[in-house]
Amino acid sequence: MSATEVPQASVPGPRQGSLADGRTSPALTLLAIGDYPTGAFTVPDMLDVSGTRVRIRRARNLTEAERLLKDDVNCILLDLDLAGETGLDLDSLRHVLRLAPRTAVLVLTSSGETDAERAAEAVRIGAQDYLTRDELDPSHLTRAIRYAVERKRADLAQRQLAETRLLAQENARLERGLLPVPLLAGAEDWLTFASHYRPGRSRALLGGDFYDTVRTPDGTVHAMIGDVCGHGPDEAALGVELRIAWRALTLAGLSGTVLLSTLQQVLEHERADDEIFATLCALDIAPDGRTADLYLAGHPSPLLSHPGELPRLLPYEHGGPALGLLADADWDGERIELGEAWSLMLYTDGLIEGHIGEGTQRLGQDGMVRLMAAHLAAGLRGEELLDAAVTEVRDLNGGELTDDVALVLLDRGQTAPAPDRP
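The structure corresponding to this sequence follows.
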């Protein structure tokens, strides 16, 4: 018997391997491609000393291999002497790697120096290991198959981890690009800006909520926050489009009903479905910071607080419908007296629609007012205040909020002591 033949007495017929403790070892499936492996493997499976059963599937060429390559194949053994199909022998390996990118691959070569160099090149291209014809015995082959399968699993896991880290880095950069940077040049000496954003969809970059703040050349500070109904990527994209449109229109000099009507036209043109709508809260703060014009399109009213007083919702009687609901809608503004020192919080309904405990009761606007009053009394300001508020709302909900949450905080010289906890 030559050294290249598989000893028949050492190759049992098909059966599951039994481990020492009586458990059945998992079976592996090998697809052997080439004339030589086909001649060597004359039985349907092998069993090594560890109890691992290796089922053998044979293919004479790459065409037949494509037909036999199923999801249950754990490893491919490719004879690099496979000739006449793709020209260069390593082209056959590249073809197999494209066909089965998640399957372990072993290559079979002769034992000469040239063949060793070719085998090393095969590993560099993507094979897990190589065997020489002198090593083609059941014990050596089954061990090589097990190691190749585990090595491929480790490579795939490592690659997935690297891709996950890269995706997280790209997402962070993309999120920074999509979320707005306030344009408040000239107002930094009297106005402080803070924001908080948390999408409701798991692993999402952005949700349907959007916000922005800009100062126009006349000294007016324009702030807005909005919410596109729904939670999918289309809604998130529409939110970004509306935010960019709002900034462009505001810097172009539009405001009030004219601005909201134009935004509605943008929404109607860009939305994927006629039933999609968006709520919006817009504020135009006068250059002296003492008054503001408030516009609400189906959106919750902002929260206003003054030094030494409990926070309260801004009263509003002339709100209009959400954008996209009525073709001929109108939105009348309402003049709000702010005073000398104040803090304004704009928010989306994701903050107030979380549950309280295990029942069906929701936080609501009244609960939010009490919650914010407590955090103000504790001396929290800026982003620290917003982060603490969202954290408490999430805790009250008993877990992550399912809706998007966006918050904008505008603070004008609030230096007096905060009110006592209610």
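The two ends are 94 Å apart (CA to CA).
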